[in-house]
Every structure is written in structure tokens, then in C-alpha cells.
Design a protein that fits this description.
Layout lengths: L1 H14 L6 H9 L3 H19 L2 E4 L1 E6 L25 H13 L4 E6 L5 H18 L4 E5 L5 H9 L4 E3 L7 H7 L6 H14 L2 E4 L2 E2 L6 H13 L4 E2 L2 E2 L17 H18 L4 E2 L3 H6 L3 H7 L4 E2 L6 H4 L15 H14 L3 E2 L8 H8 L18
Parallel strand pairs: 1-11, 1-12, 2-3, 3-4, 4-5, 5-6, 6-8, 7-9, 8-10
The structure holds S-adenosyl-L-homocysteine and iron/sulfur cluster.
Amino acid sequence: MIILIFITLKKMYKYSMASLTKAEMLSWLKTEDRSELEKLYEKAYAVKLANTGKVVHFRGIIEFSNVCSKNCYYCGIRKDNKNVKRYSMDAKNILKAAKFALEAGYGSVVLQSGERADKMFVALIEKLLKDLNAMSSGKLGITLSLGEQSEATYKKWFAAGAKRYLLRIETSNPGLYAKLHPGDHEFGARLACLKLLKKTGYQVGTGVMIGLPFQTCEDLADDLAFFKKNDIDMLGMGPYIPHAETPLNAYAGNFDKKKNLRLGLTMIALARLSMPDINIAATTALQALDPKGRELGLLAGANIIMPNLTPTEYRAGYKLYDNKPCLDENAEMCLHCLEKRITALDEKIGYNSEGTSKHYLKRTKSGRVLKIPASKIDSKISI
Ligand code: SAH
Ligand code: SF4
């Protein structure tokens, strides 16, 4: 009987915050009261502990190419930035970086680059995935973060061994999305890609930039509702940081580092409270705003860190925003530095484990994998 009461209370605690209303979220996003926010972060951290444990999982990120066919107004490697020296790592070097992750026990890697959808690129990734799986005997969880692709491509890469995909919606407000992108970058197309990824069977991650010009706290509260409604498995969101060589830098005068850091942490905490069992990353952009930004993210409810595995020689070429940290470090230095930071928090590192999203495991076990016929996917789908 006592055990039963304990289990029920624990369950109630685990999910008691799952029903935050939009008004409550808004009021948290608007508050600047540090001591109140500390309490929120503590609650979110407790929910993280109860749901994903006292463990941080690593996703080694390999930023293998800065060649991009798109022109997002906020991004430093946008196609029209002629000051960027373009690079593409060859398969041998990408595999070498992934081998480092495998041997260091990271359990998973993220392959990220600018967006390309040409045949040669699609085939290159397909071959790379097969080689990666052969090299690791399937022991490395592979996440792709390669932007918008066709359904056929998503299927091809899934069949070749990628099981997770990270595609940030950037903002759930279509009007704001239109202000941040040229006319041929469509919110509806990005949304349709998220649906396709889920339909294909990927663990789906999305996210937004926080503290964008024109963005309101209402928008951020709507972003949280968007994540929940779309039943996502992973969240990788972070503060927006201006890049001098981008059109959006025209608004850099309004950039408020402290505010974006605070909002970044509050968004993590609110996401954890409303989606207790998803994987949430403490992203590098947090560290660009505060040397301890990623630790703060973990203490606000995140459970994933993405150590950089990009060889040092390429890091300066992958500056999505200004003041990106760790540009002169290498994978080994990043590992030691992170180990120290995480053990200082008294958290364990989930070595040799893929750290699959608990939410994904539950969702697929209960058969909640979204199956929408491709013909029904269009920009008007309401979410
Ligand atoms: N090309 C792929 C993946 C690389 S970009 C894609 O766009 O999906 C990865 C993420 O970097 C983007 O989703 C965006 O949210 C983030 N990003 C780009 N510019 C940024 C900036 N100035 N500040 C913060 N994040 C930025
Ligand atoms: Fe390219 Fe991604 Fe940057 Fe957009 S955000 S310009 S798609 S790398």
C-alpha cells in the first residue's frame, strides 16, 4: 500500500507541471526576477532528474561542410556571404572524427552542414552513413542536421542508418519566419519536412532561436505549444546571436545578451516541465553568452551536450554567429573541458550509450508514430 502511494505521488510529481497554461508560461518568460527564476530552474531540474536521470548524454557534432544553398537572414554561412571560405571535409576525415567519438564512448554523433539537396550530396551522405555504421558496427547513434530534403532523400538516409534528425522550425510564427528568410524559404515547406521525418520513423528534433529581432514572449510561448503539439522527441534550441555579415545584423543594436541568456534558460526549463521525457540540448550558443552557459542549461533541465568534433582547422569557417566559443580547441580538449564541467555539477556522463529519447521509446511502443500520406502534407496543415 505504502509503495503504491509512493509510486502515485512520484508520478504526480513527475507530471504535475505538465499542464502549465500559456498564461503561466508567458508570465515566466516575462519575469526578470532572478530568485523566482531560480526556483523555476530548480523545479525543472528535479523533473529532469525524475525522468531522464542524473546523467548527461553526449552527441559529438561534426560540422562537415559550410557550403549552403540558402540565405537565411541570420546565419553567418548563408550563401551570399562572400567572406566565408567554403570547405567540405572528405569522407575519410568525417569518419576519423566519428571514430574519435566512438572510442571516447560518446554513443552518438550529429552530422551537420549547410543545406544542399543535389544528387551528388544525397549520394555522398548515403555512402557516408553506410560507412559510419560499418565502422561502428551500428554502435553509434547517428543524427543528421542537413536541412530540408525530399521524402525520398529522408527515406534513403534512414535506410542507410540515420535514425535521428534535427530540423529547427526556427520560429513557430509563420509571419516572423517570413521576416527572417527570403521569399523562397517557406515556413510551410519546413513544417512539412518535420512531418515527413516523423512519418519516415526518425526520432525528430526541432527547436527555435530565442531572442530574435521582432520576436515576442507570446511567440516563445507559442513555440513551446508547437513542440508539445508536434509530439517531438528532442529539442535543440538556443539564443539568437547576431553575425556581423548578415542582413539581420541591422538590428544588432537591440541585441541584449543578458536577456537572451535568461530567455534561453527559461525556455529550457519550461520545455522540461511541459515535456518531461524528451531529450533537451544545452546548446553551444548559451556558452557564447556566458562561459558557464551550457552548465546553466543543464541545471535548468537540459540533458544533452553536443561536444564539437569538427577539426580545429575548419571551426572558424563554421561561424553561424559571432563569438562562437571553442574555435581554437580540438575534440580532445573539448572532451576534457566538458568532463570537468559536468562532474563539477555532480552529474554523470552517459558513456557508451546512445541516450535514445525516452519520449521516442514510449511514443513508438505505444504506436503513436505519425502516419500522414505525403499527399496530405501541405503548408496549411495546422499543428
Ligand atoms: N543548414 C541546416 C543545419 C545547420 S544550421 C539547417 O539550417 O537546418 C543549424 C542551426 O543554426 C539553424 O537551425 C539555426 O537555428 C542556427 N543558427 C543559425 N544562425 C544563427 C544565429 N545567428 N544565432 C543562433 N543560431 C543560429
Ligand atoms: Fe544555410 Fe542552415 Fe545557415 Fe540557413 S541556417 S543559411 S540553411 S546553414
